Amino acid sequence: MGHKKDAPLRSDAQRNRERILEVAVAELTLCADAPLSAIAKKAGVGQGTFYRNFPNREALVLEIYRHEMQQVADAACDLLDAHEPERALREWMDHLARFAMTKAGLADAIRQVTSAPGGPAKPEPTPVAAAGERLLRANEEAGTIRPGVTSDDFFLAIAGLWQLDPHGDWQSRAARLLDFVMDGLRAGAPGRR
After folding, report:
1. How far apart are CA 63 and CA 97, in angstroms?
2. End-to-end CA distance of the chain
3. Could you give the 3-state DSSP secondary structure of residue 183?
4. What is the pTM for the complete model shown?
């Protein structure tokens, strides 16, 4: 009997949690210092519910970071399912650029939390690194990029994305940078000889 009562509660709690995260992403993207009370109010949950889910700002920001990184990683799989490896890789690079630019406020919030003395360490973006690795290996097997490129090489090569001004003309600058990187990855590819 007890089980029936618990199930709806759990799904309500899950919905509350998702709603808080959704609102928090939007608010923190607009302003890295958005107050938690404002996020709770916009999400339509009481302070008690909010703090039960996220006892502090760090917990909220790190959960958002994990969630957003997972979305970026999942996009790689979707692109590989839909396109040839080379196109999937290039489109995923655009996806990373959009993520870097549209979530600039979020990046600030993450930096504030993870650079605080005694604050939590920034979680490793392992799902994203794994997704990059998967795209690179698919391209290597297809002969569309030079062999032996690691995901570390790849992320170092595109690190310039995070230097662009999200309020400027970042689209054309990101496209140029990513085209350079893509040309570099193609140089020496067996399929191009």
Report:
1. 21
2. 69
3. helix
4. 0.75
